[in-house]
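Section handout 9: paired folding examples.
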Amino acid sequence: MKMGKYEWSTLIVLIYMLPYLYFGMAQDRAHHSFLGYVLAIVATGALAYASRRFGSVYAVPIGNLLSLGISYYFVRMVGEGYWESYFKPLSPQLTVIIFSVLLLIPQAIVLLVTHFAVRRKSRVL
């Protein structure tokens, strides 16, 4: 069974819906490790590549907004007490928003590189 553009877009958005930023912040808080942030960068970069490769670039902003919303929700549900002063001087909610904006930078780079690679490949063929 071959998947079409709509199916790929839906799959990419569903994978984007994981709360990458919440996982990164929780990993940082619990283990003082940046591994969660690195995994978020790698995962969203791979999703940005897949969305460009399969022609569903609109899945990137939709997926990022959904992931931000879900991460923000989980951070709010855990509450200020858990995060205490770990992310001071910023609140945990503001930290999620700032990290979300910063997470767009590697995705934009991946999208641009993939765009030019696809264009170059189509010109050669």
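Moving on to protein 2 of 2.
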Amino acid sequence: MIAPIADPTIAEMRQCAPESRDVAVPALAADARAERTAWLDLFGPLPSAYMGAIEPMTLLREARACYVERHFMATILAAAAHVEHTLAEELELRNLVASDGSLSFDRAIAIAHVNNVFAHPDVRAKIDALRLVRNPLTHRKPDGHAYAIATRFRAQKRPPWVILQEDAMLALEVMHGLFFGTLRPFDEGSA
């Protein structure tokens, strides 16, 4: 028989205050879902028609749906992927990079910053913050990595799902900002 793993992370999670959890009481869960939906509505409606590559357009909608359903890691990953696609496409349209698919996220952020692609100086910091919280979700990091969820919840003494929701909200803010900031009028001559 295999003994259960004594994971200190799990023990610490049990110490989190129960009121900070999205409890399995249907009325409370519905209220929390409604609050997440209302928060998303602050970004305004998506345009009724827009064109773009299938991947980022699908990621945009899926990131929103994941957030409403409380899938915060999936929200972060989908929103970050959308941002990475959109940023790479914007750099390609401005002839700042080749469209060979070899551009890394951090390099795209640096090129955009150097070439004043971001309308507001705060944008680069937010995109880079998103990249930093996304990385431990997509690339295995050693114990104690500064942006790993376990490290952050221990240091902040807050439940991991609260931290993940905040990260998801940042991801959605960056995603919507870049999406609306890069929309262009439809050019019938390019269709």
